[in-house]
Amino acid sequence: MNQMIIHVDMDAFYASVEIRDNPSLRGKPLIIGSLPNERGVVATCSYEARKFGVHSGMNIKEAYRLCPRGIYMHPHFDKYKAISHRLHQIWNTYASASQAIALDEAYLDVTEQAKDWDGARRIARIIKQRTRNEVGLTCSVGVAYSKTAAKTASEEKKPDGYFEILTAEDFVNLIIDRDVRVLYTVGAKSAAKLHTAGIRTVRDIRDNPQTVARLLGKQGRWITQLAYGIDGRKVEPYRPEEAKSIGREVTFQKDVANYALLRDILILLALSVQHRAERVGLHGKGVTLKLTYADMKSITRSRAAYSTDSAVTIFHEAAAILDTVEQRPVRLIGVSLYNLSQEKNAQLTIENFFEPSADRQNDELQSLLNALSERYHLKFSENLDKLFEAETLHKTVEYMRRHSPE
């Protein structure tokens, strides 16, 4: 039996949630992300803002230049996550396998439930109706024979759209004269390489497979298959243990040259990383520090470690790396765990024999938080749960930056 795959994609998700909760925003150019006087990018925007050329990932300064009369708002991630949980509950009801791509997007394998294409169409209609009725938001749905085709279909009639691509022939006929970026995995850099070689459309890819492979290697061979409508990938549920790393980073509104402040911020990032790892039941055996300097040059430095489960250990490893890097003004700092596993390393070796016990680590963590509280006049210990929220973490870090002792 051929696959029957549905791709569901919410329409301007963050912006639509805010408009749902505040109808006075309807019909206005709404930009969710940083504010115009801040550093950062557009997370998403309403379709009214897109008419001005604003799009996700755009620098907020450029967005303001294009749309100075837009309404700019910070995102409310906790609200979006709660809504996302409900959305995926609805969608998963109709699938034998579900692959969440983002808070607002998923692939659904409905082959068994649908039985035939009429059944797949019926499921798609139900998903759209329940999403609107139960969550108050619209989504666009693509029904297709493959993941790539389903993704393409869901984009075809946005917003609140429905489209189907039932065969490879249908897929090729739809996209053959479109720009190469219509194909899965072809981003801006890959497209630029292809354009430079005169390969601008899907038809050009089909006509020049050797050139595409030479320019893009394995990716080039993959997109050549896609240009013929060939995509046999299965819908595979996300498994936390397959993540390559778990991390958290913050961007400062003004560059930070005070490395004592950066060290303090590492404590909060380490706590957040520990919380994320515990939530998905993963353990790490290495820590990575990421810095982006004021000139936009980014570096990453890593240290392998026997065990990096605790915030205290993550902090010490990251701080040790920080001590070794060139000290220039910093725009962004991040910490992550790598070499992840569901199994906690329990083997006793000479390297870990002298590692501090859990009680000692808890005492040290409390001591670190007490010191932060004294330096910045914030009650860290009393508000740790809130601190794990992205918005609260960023606000706390900015407060620390503005009030940091010299």
Structure overview:
This protein has 406 residues and is α+β, with helices and mostly antiparallel strands. It folds into three domains: 13-77, MutS, DNA mismatch repair protein, domain I (3-Layer(aba) Sandwich); 172-227, DNA polymerase, domain 1 (Orthogonal Bundle), CATH 1.10.150; 240-403, 2-Layer Sandwich (Dna Ligase, domain 1), CATH 3.30.1490.100. 45% of the residues lie in helices and 18% in strands. The protein has 16 helices and twelve strands. The protein has helices spanning 13-21, 47-50, 60-66, 77-92, 111-114, 117-135, 147-156, 168-175, 188-196, 202-207, 209-227, 259-280, 311-322, 358-376, 384-387, 390-403; strands spanning 5-10, 30-33, 42-45, 71-73, 97-102, 105-109, 139-144, 162-165, 245-256, 286-293, 298-304, 330-338. The strands form three sheets. Strands 5-6-1-7-8 form a five-stranded mixed beta sheet. A four-stranded antiparallel beta sheet has the order 9-12-10-11. Helix 7 links the parallel strand 7 (139-144) and strand 8 (162-165). Helix 4 packs antiparallel against helix 6 and helix 12 (259-280) packs antiparallel against helix 13. The longest helix has 22 residues, at 259-280.
